[in-house]
Design brief:
- The chain has one helix spanning 3-17, and strands at residues 26-33, 41-49, 54-60, 64-75, 78-84, 87-89, 95-97, 103-109, 118-126, 132-142.
- It has 156 residues and is mostly beta strands.
- It has one domain: PCu(A)C copper chaperone (Immunoglobulin-like, Sandwich), CATH 2.60.40.
- Strands 1, 2, 3, 4, 5, 6, 7, 8, 9 and 10 form a 10-stranded mixed β-sheet that branches.
Length: 156
């Protein structure tokens, strides 16, 4: 079974079982960067789309004691990371949560995360009606060195 096929199957399973299209939020390619044994934090990444526009107002995961939305910003030539209370997903504009940008931060991990494991994540999504829904997803753990999604063909 090819890696691409496994990922497609995993993505399809997520779509079928995770309610990934709930709350006017489409989630593509969710993944978590793997960790080394002593590491206590890592990032989760994905692509988000919304037809009408929604706001992420919180995140949770049983894999970590603290889960936050984060943003990386340049401030006087220094890359800084800060927690965000809310993150807008504008109508019709894909929002990519990726290394060096917006991402989900998993802090105080309960155990190291190894390639191939699956991490459940809950996004708290506020619609235009101000109703908050939980959207469950499963993110695949990739290598510690993983930098970008879907880069499975190139091994240097």
């Amino acid at each position: 079974m090819s890696i691409a096929y496994k990922i497609a199957a995993l993505a399809l399973t997520s779509l079928l079982s995770g309610g990934v299209l709930a709350a006017d939020l489409e989630i593509k390619d969710p993944w978590v960067r793997g960790t080394v044994p002593a590491q206590k934090a890592t990032g989760a990444f994905m692509q988000l789309n919304s037809k009408a526009g929604v706001t992420l107002v919180g995140v949770a995961s049983p894999a970590a004691n603290v889960v936050e939305l984060h943003e990386m910003v340049m401030d006087n030539n220094v890359m800084k990371m800060r927690a965000l209370p809310r993150l807008e997903v504008q109508a019709g504009k894909p929002l990519e949560l990726k290394p060096g940008s917006y991402h989900v931060m998993l802090i105080d991990l309960k155990k190291p995360l190894s390639k191939g494991e699956v991490v459940p994540i809950t996004l708290k999504v506020e619609g235009k009606d101000k109703k908050v829904e939980n959207v469950e997803l499963k993110a695949e753990v990739r290598d510690l060195t993983a930098a970008a999604p879907m880069d499975h063909k190139h091994h240097h």
